[in-house]
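One-letter codes give the sequence; backbone shape is given numerically. An example follows:

. . .
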Amino acid sequence: MDMRDRMSAALKDAMRAKEADRLSTLRLINAAIKDREIAARSEGEAPAVGDDVVLGILGKMVKQRQESARAYEEGGRLELAEKELAEIKVIEEFLPRQLDENETAAAVEAAIAEVEATSIRDMGKVMAALKARYTGQMDFGAVGPMVKAKLG
């Protein structure tokens, strides 16, 4: 079952169970995917959005909500922060398991060896290799400095 089918099934289950918050988040995910399909169509690309693109969209949605939750907490709006964190939990159900620090470090080492990177100029190749293999499993914003430190 691909990700779109899993999301459709989850959406129907949430409707049947009358889980309003979960349903709202699942509808946001579907809307983001449909927006991406429309953008792809207007750019002349294939309209079908694959699992890798969906993973990228979900990762971006999680990151946005983490930033929003942090801002709400700093502003003393805890109820809004809790809502954002609840949405993150629903989104993360569709993401693969996140790599821990040791697994991420090992993946970085493997990617550096794979592309035979020797200097900071090869950082783009290393990041591309990591994104191809670990989309949705690691935070590339945090991995970038790690790669830079190893190559620099």
